[in-house]
Input
Amino acid sequence: MPGQTLETFRWPREFMDRFQSRNGSIICRELIQCDLNKHEGLAMNREQRLTAKLCSKFVQDAGEIVEEIIETSVAPGSQGQEQDKNLGSSCSCGCNC
Output
């Protein structure tokens, strides 16, 4: 069970690291260079259509990263494949007892 917990935290960390590497940040206001929590930021977004111009790329990047992580975690002979088999077991130790 502790190994499964570590694996659970590894994937989100890997996702965040890869996303930040591609885009320079994981924080929305840094990605679009505008704070949507402020009136000025909302106005700027409306005028420049920042979310319409930028967010689709970030969503596409996120999807590609998730796909890469899934592919590498279930590749034959990978550690992820063994973990995936254990996740479907009925016993917390992964032995299907």
